[in-house]
């Protein structure tokens, strides 16, 4: 068993999930923002993608954060005639971010991150046990 290989593969998963959580946090932070000018577009939701790569050095498949794409779904329109960003009809355009979807994605990313972290912890324990056996 190659411990370095296991740690390196888990590290790529940790990096990819951390990037995914960063994008989700950005979406959540901008969920209620409006356009900076009247009639302009508000923040558009970002969607992270992953890329599987074959790492020749490790001789294994690894994952990395791929291109971050923009969600092309419609913006939300709310009738708020007194809002400074309202158009002539009184509607304000809000980002196409759904907080519930973002929370579910965040939970999934968190679980994947924890799974990769468990791999690192288990590998570290095996290394420690192996060294203990070699000492006795």
Kindly summarize this structure in a few lines:
This protein has 136 residues and is an alpha+beta fold. It has one domain (2-135). The chain has helices at 3-29, 99-135, and strands at residues 46-55, 60-70, 76-79, 91-94.
Outline the structure in words.
It is found in: Bacterial flagellum basal body. The strands form 2 sheets. The chain has a two-stranded antiparallel ribbon. A two-stranded antiparallel ribbon has the order 3-4. α1 (3-29) runs antiparallel to α2 (99-135). The chain has one domain (2-135). With 136 residues, the chain is an alpha+beta fold. The protein has helices at residues 3-29, 99-135; strands at residues 46-55, 60-70, 76-79, 91-94.
Keywords:
alpha+beta; single chain; two-stranded antiparallel ribbon; elongated; 4 strands
